[in-house]
């Protein structure tokens, strides 16, 4: 192996890691959504909070630190749908990225 081949392999590996990070950042940004005057980030943290809420309605903090009164079942459904939709899209894009490698 000459130095050009090694350099190309290093560059390809760096480009792949950069592409993975860009993909992750793009998908995480798509996890944000509005509901009932608040901004939420679909994910395990929000879903866990909603899952343990004992009442049908609750006041919880959105991503901007604002207290928002929510219907627990509605927000949980919206968060689950957004989370699964984006995770499926992320996985599909990741698989394409892995094949290009």
Would you give an account of this structure?
By secondary structure, this protein is an alpha+beta fold. The protein has one domain (3-100). It is 64% helix and 18% strand. The chain contains 3 helices and 4 strands. It has helices spanning 3-29, 44-52, 72-100; strands spanning 32-35, 38-41, 57-61, 67-71. A two-stranded antiparallel ribbon has the order 1-2. Helix 1 (3-29) packs antiparallel against helix 3 and helix 2 (44-52) runs antiparallel to helix 3 (72-100). The longest helix has 29 residues, at 72-100. It is elongated. The relative contact order is 0.16.
Task: Describe the secondary structure blueprint for this structure.
Layout: H1 3-29, E1 32-35, E2 38-41, H2 44-52, E3 57-61, E4 67-71, H3 72-100
Antiparallel strand pairs: 1-2, 3-4
What is the gist of this entry?
Helix content is about 65%, strand content about 20%. The chain has three helices and four strands, in the order αββαββα.
Task: List its traits.
two-stranded antiparallel ribbon, single chain, alpha+beta, two-stranded antiparallel sheet, elongated, 101 residues
Biggest pleated-sheet summary: 2 strands, antiparallel
The total domain count is: 1
Distance between the termini: 19 Å
How many helices? The count is 3
Q: What is the strand arrangement across the widest sheet?
A: 1-2
Order of helices and strands: HEEHEEH
- Any idea what the shape is? elongated
The rounded Rg comes to 19 Å
Low confidence ranges: none
Question: Average pLDDT across residues?
Answer: 88
């Amino acid at each position: 192996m000459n130095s050009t081949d090694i350099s190309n392999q290093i560059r390809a590996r760096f480009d792949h890691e950069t592409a993975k990070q860009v993909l992750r950042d793009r998908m995480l940004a798509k996890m944000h959504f509005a509901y009932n005057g608040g901004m939420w980030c679909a994910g395990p943290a929000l879903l866990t909070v909603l899952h343990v809420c004992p009442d049908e309605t609750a006041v919880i903090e959105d991503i901007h630190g604002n207290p928002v009164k929510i219907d627990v079942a509605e927000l949980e459904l919206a968060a689950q749908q957004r989370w699964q939709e984006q995770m499926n899209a992320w996985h599909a894009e990741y698989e394409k990225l892995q094949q290009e490698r």
